[in-house]
Every structure is written in C-alpha cells, then in structure tokens.
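in:
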C-alpha cells in the first residue's frame, strides 16, 4: 500500500477500525469479525526510517448479516377484504407469495380476500426467495356477519268496499307474508275501518269505534297502502 522513495517504511499504524476488527502489523492484514453495523473511516499511517509519515484513508462499511426470509402475519381489513402479505429479513432479491387453494405463486402481495373466508378460516401462506420457501399458518380474525333479509309479500289484499252500519270483515291469510331468512314475528294494521272485523289466519279482530291496531305472532316491517294498511317485518 505504501512505498518509500528515499528510505524504508519502518511501521504502519491503523486506527478507526470497527469493533471486532484488528490490524496485524506483522502480516500487514486487517482481520476479525465485526460485531456492530455501521460505517467507519479507517486511517492507515506509514512512517519511514527518517520519521517522515504519510496517511491513507478509506471507509469500511459493516452491514447486517443476511438472515433467512421470514413470513409475518398478513394485514386484513375485515370490511373491504384487503389482504396484504408481509415478510421480513431475506437477501433483498424478489419475493413470491402464495396461499394454498387461493392464490398461486406471484410477486403480487395485495389481494381482496372473499368475505366467506374472512372469519375463522385457517390459511396456509407461503413465500419464497432465492429458492428458499417459508410457510405460515394464519387464521382470519374477522367476526362473522349476517345481513338480515327483509320479509316479502306473497300476494295482494284487494281493495275493499262496505257500507256504514253493515258488518264487515277482511281475511288476511298467514300465507300473505314470508321471511326468506327468519320468521315473521308480528303484524300491525292501520287505517282499518272502525267497527269492522279483520281476520288474520284463524283469528278475527273487530274495530271498537277508534282506529284499530293488532299485533300477532308475526314480524312486521313492509308497508302496502290501499283501503287498509298492513305493516310487517
């Protein structure tokens, strides 16, 4: 590294080495095992037999050791289904990801997870880099959600005509309503002719001189307006 034009190099001193490295003056070699990550400016000073010196500088960078690729738990948005693979460590080369029976090997890391498997389903996630593959078992943490479907009207109650002071009744069969994912629990009637009768299933309801309303073991929530009104859910 150093030479002397009119004399002889009698010593070389090296300073600024990273922790774990040393300079051997006998062999003229810097060696050892660095233990800290960082950048160091190393100084090498040569002295000749006439006590003249010259100094050389260089930078020695210690990087972290390359650790195997490691899969982390993905990020899952329970509302939108946004699903993101995550990993750490590795050697910096491209990473491919996959999920058994769901996503094939691909450099893509963000997907939309179907709603049906967002709650309590165990997925086998995979990642590979430079020929090395890592596997992670992951259970989706979202809560199961159920959307209640509204009841439906299966028929029509025809508009009715009657006379004042004349007995009147209107049959409303139980088959008029149904619930696609539950049970009808109550029914209410409004605008019913006061003094008249209403038949619901096998039951009759009479007006009492005021606007009439009845509740039965059926569920209400939909409205049909005509000569009479019926609410159900």
């Amino acid at each position: 590294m150093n030479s002397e034009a009119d004399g002889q190099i009698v010593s070389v001193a090296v300073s600024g080495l990273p922790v774990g490295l040393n300079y051997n003056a006998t062999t003229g070699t810097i060696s050892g095992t660095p233990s800290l990550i960082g950048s160091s400016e190393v100084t090498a000073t040569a002295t000749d037999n006439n006590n003249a010196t010259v100094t050389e500088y260089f930078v020695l960078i210690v990087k972290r050791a390359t650790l195997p690729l490691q899969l982390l738990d993905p990020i899952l948005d329970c509302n939108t289904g946004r699903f993101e693979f995550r990993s750490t460590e590795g050697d910096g080369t491209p990473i491919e990801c996959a999920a058994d029976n769901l996503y094939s090997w691909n450099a893509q890391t963000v997907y939309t997870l179907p709603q049906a498997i967002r709650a309590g389903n165990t997925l086998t996630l995979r990642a590979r880099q430079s020929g090395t593959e890592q596997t992670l078992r992951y259970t989706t943490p979202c809560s199961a959600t159920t959307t209640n479907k509204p009841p439906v009207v299966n028929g029509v109650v025809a508009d009715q005509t009657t006379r004042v002071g004349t007995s009147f009744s209107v049959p409303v069969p139980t088959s008029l309503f149904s619930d696609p994912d539950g049970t009808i629990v109550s029914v209410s009637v409004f605008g019913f002719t006061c003094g008249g009768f209403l038949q619901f299933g096998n039951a009759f309801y009479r007006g009492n001189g005021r606007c009439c309303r009845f509740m039965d073991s059926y569920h209400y929530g939909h409205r049909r307006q005509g000569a009479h009104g019926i609410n159900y859910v």
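note: Residues 195 and 208 are 5 Å apart (CA to CA).
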